[in-house]
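Any chance you could type out a protein's amino acid sequence plus the matching C-alpha coordinates because I've never seen that pairing?

——
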Amino acid sequence: MTDNGHAGGLTVLGVDPGSAVTGFGVVAHDGRDLVHRHHSQLRLSALPSLGEKLARLYDCTMELIDMYSPGVCAVEGIFHGRNVRSMVVLGQARGAVMVAAANRGLEIVEYPPATVKQAVVGYGRAAKEQVQRMVGMILGRLETVDEHAADALAVAICHHHQHRLTAIAGRIR
Protein backbone atom coordinates (compact mmCIF):
# COMPACT_ATOMS: atom_id res chain seq x y z
CA MET A 1 0.00 0.00 0.00
CA THR A 2 1.08 3.59 -0.57
CA ASP A 3 0.29 7.14 0.42
CA ASN A 4 -2.98 7.04 -1.52
CA GLY A 5 -3.98 3.45 -0.90
CA HIS A 6 -2.96 2.06 -4.30
CA ALA A 7 -0.17 -0.31 -5.13
CA GLY A 8 2.61 1.19 -7.22
CA GLY A 9 3.23 4.55 -5.60
CA LEU A 10 2.01 8.02 -4.92
CA THR A 11 -0.47 9.53 -7.38
CA VAL A 12 -0.55 13.32 -7.61
CA LEU A 13 -3.21 15.55 -9.15
CA GLY A 14 -1.43 18.64 -10.46
CA VAL A 15 -3.47 21.75 -11.21
CA ASP A 16 -2.65 24.95 -13.10
CA PRO A 17 -5.68 27.02 -12.09
CA GLY A 18 -7.10 29.78 -14.21
CA SER A 19 -10.39 31.58 -14.69
CA ALA A 20 -10.33 31.12 -18.49
CA VAL A 21 -8.49 27.78 -18.78
CA THR A 22 -7.45 25.38 -16.02
CA GLY A 23 -4.98 22.58 -16.65
CA PHE A 24 -5.10 19.22 -14.90
CA GLY A 25 -2.46 16.50 -14.83
CA VAL A 26 -2.25 13.20 -12.99
CA VAL A 27 1.16 11.62 -12.48
CA ALA A 28 1.87 8.41 -10.57
CA HIS A 29 5.10 6.85 -9.40
CA ASP A 30 5.32 3.17 -10.23
CA GLY A 31 8.14 2.49 -7.78
CA ARG A 32 10.77 3.37 -10.34
CA ASP A 33 9.50 5.93 -12.87
CA LEU A 34 6.95 8.70 -13.12
CA VAL A 35 3.95 7.60 -15.16
CA HIS A 36 1.49 9.80 -17.02
CA ARG A 37 -2.09 8.92 -16.05
CA HIS A 38 -4.12 11.87 -17.38
CA HIS A 39 -3.99 15.41 -18.65
CA SER A 40 -6.71 17.81 -19.74
CA GLN A 41 -7.65 21.45 -20.02
CA LEU A 42 -10.96 22.84 -18.85
CA ARG A 43 -12.05 25.88 -20.86
CA LEU A 44 -14.15 28.13 -18.66
CA SER A 45 -14.23 31.30 -20.77
CA ALA A 46 -17.48 30.32 -22.53
CA LEU A 47 -19.43 30.16 -19.27
CA PRO A 48 -21.38 33.37 -18.65
CA SER A 49 -20.82 33.94 -14.92
CA LEU A 50 -18.03 33.57 -12.38
CA GLY A 51 -20.31 31.38 -10.26
CA GLU A 52 -20.83 28.94 -13.13
CA LYS A 53 -17.10 28.85 -13.82
CA LEU A 54 -16.27 28.09 -10.19
CA ALA A 55 -18.99 25.43 -9.96
CA ARG A 56 -17.71 23.73 -13.14
CA LEU A 57 -14.14 23.88 -11.88
CA TYR A 58 -15.16 22.36 -8.56
CA ASP A 59 -17.17 19.59 -10.27
CA CYS A 60 -14.38 18.74 -12.71
CA THR A 61 -11.83 18.56 -9.88
CA MET A 62 -14.13 16.23 -7.92
CA GLU A 63 -14.60 13.99 -10.99
CA LEU A 64 -10.85 13.68 -11.53
CA ILE A 65 -10.22 12.93 -7.86
CA ASP A 66 -12.91 10.24 -7.90
CA MET A 67 -11.55 8.77 -11.15
CA TYR A 68 -7.80 8.68 -10.32
CA SER A 69 -7.75 8.58 -6.48
CA PRO A 70 -4.70 10.80 -5.98
CA GLY A 71 -3.15 11.08 -2.55
CA VAL A 72 -2.14 14.72 -3.04
CA CYS A 73 -3.40 17.77 -4.90
CA ALA A 74 -0.50 19.99 -5.98
CA VAL A 75 -1.56 23.47 -7.09
CA GLU A 76 0.52 26.09 -8.83
CA GLY A 77 0.78 29.18 -6.67
CA ILE A 78 -0.12 32.71 -7.65
CA PHE A 79 2.53 34.77 -9.37
CA HIS A 80 2.68 38.47 -8.58
CA GLY A 81 0.76 40.49 -11.14
CA ARG A 82 -0.25 44.05 -11.64
CA ASN A 83 -3.95 43.44 -12.31
CA VAL A 84 -5.61 43.08 -8.92
CA ARG A 85 -8.93 41.91 -10.40
CA SER A 86 -7.20 39.09 -12.29
CA MET A 87 -5.38 38.03 -9.13
CA VAL A 88 -8.65 37.93 -7.17
CA VAL A 89 -10.38 35.82 -9.84
CA LEU A 90 -7.37 33.50 -10.01
CA GLY A 91 -7.54 33.14 -6.22
CA GLN A 92 -11.19 32.19 -6.49
CA ALA A 93 -10.40 29.53 -9.12
CA ARG A 94 -7.65 28.13 -6.89
CA GLY A 95 -10.12 28.12 -4.01
CA ALA A 96 -12.66 26.03 -5.96
CA VAL A 97 -9.96 23.43 -6.71
CA MET A 98 -8.68 23.41 -3.13
CA VAL A 99 -12.14 23.04 -1.60
CA ALA A 100 -12.83 20.07 -3.88
CA ALA A 101 -9.53 18.46 -2.82
CA ALA A 102 -10.20 19.20 0.85
CA ASN A 103 -13.69 17.71 0.58
CA ARG A 104 -12.09 14.45 -0.61
CA GLY A 105 -9.55 14.52 2.22
CA LEU A 106 -6.51 15.17 0.04
CA GLU A 107 -3.36 16.82 1.23
CA ILE A 108 -3.02 20.15 -0.62
CA VAL A 109 0.38 21.57 -1.47
CA GLU A 110 1.28 24.73 -3.36
CA TYR A 111 4.36 25.47 -5.43
CA PRO A 112 5.37 28.85 -6.85
CA PRO A 113 5.71 28.88 -10.66
CA ALA A 114 9.48 29.41 -10.44
CA THR A 115 9.87 26.35 -8.18
CA VAL A 116 7.88 24.22 -10.64
CA LYS A 117 10.01 25.38 -13.57
CA GLN A 118 13.21 24.81 -11.58
CA ALA A 119 12.11 21.25 -10.70
CA VAL A 120 11.18 20.33 -14.27
CA VAL A 121 13.52 22.36 -16.49
CA GLY A 122 16.32 23.30 -14.09
CA TYR A 123 15.72 27.02 -14.56
CA GLY A 124 13.10 29.04 -12.66
CA ARG A 125 12.45 31.43 -15.54
CA ALA A 126 12.07 28.81 -18.26
CA ALA A 127 9.74 29.51 -21.18
CA LYS A 128 6.41 27.69 -21.52
CA GLU A 129 7.76 25.76 -24.52
CA GLN A 130 10.69 24.48 -22.47
CA VAL A 131 8.29 23.26 -19.77
CA GLN A 132 6.15 21.51 -22.39
CA ARG A 133 9.19 19.76 -23.91
CA MET A 134 10.63 18.64 -20.57
CA VAL A 135 7.27 17.34 -19.32
CA GLY A 136 7.08 15.25 -22.49
CA MET A 137 10.61 13.94 -22.00
CA ILE A 138 10.13 13.13 -18.30
CA LEU A 139 6.87 11.29 -18.93
CA GLY A 140 7.97 9.66 -22.20
CA ARG A 141 5.29 11.31 -24.32
CA LEU A 142 5.89 11.90 -28.01
CA GLU A 143 3.11 14.41 -28.69
CA THR A 144 3.20 17.92 -27.26
CA VAL A 145 0.80 18.52 -24.40
CA ASP A 146 -1.20 21.77 -24.44
CA GLU A 147 0.22 24.63 -22.38
CA HIS A 148 -2.05 24.55 -19.32
CA ALA A 149 -2.11 20.74 -19.13
CA ALA A 150 1.70 20.71 -19.40
CA ASP A 151 1.90 23.21 -16.54
CA ALA A 152 -0.39 21.00 -14.43
CA LEU A 153 1.74 17.92 -15.18
CA ALA A 154 4.82 19.97 -14.26
CA VAL A 155 3.28 20.82 -10.87
CA ALA A 156 2.64 17.11 -10.25
CA ILE A 157 6.20 16.24 -11.31
CA CYS A 158 7.53 18.98 -9.00
CA HIS A 159 5.66 17.43 -6.08
CA HIS A 160 7.04 13.98 -6.86
CA HIS A 161 10.57 15.44 -6.82
CA GLN A 162 9.91 17.22 -3.51
CA HIS A 163 8.33 14.08 -2.02
CA ARG A 164 11.38 12.01 -3.02
CA LEU A 165 13.83 14.58 -1.62
CA THR A 166 11.90 14.71 1.67
CA ALA A 167 12.02 10.91 1.91
CA ILE A 168 15.78 10.88 1.26
CA ALA A 169 16.35 13.62 3.85
CA GLY A 170 14.32 11.62 6.38
CA ARG A 171 16.54 8.57 5.87
CA ILE A 172 19.71 10.65 6.33
CA ARG A 173 18.60 11.96 9.71
Q: What stands out?
A: The CA atoms of residues 33 and 139 lie 9 Å apart. The helical segments are 50-68, 84-103, 113-120, 128-139, 147-172. Confidence is low (pLDDT under 50) at residues 1-7. The chain has five helices and five strands.
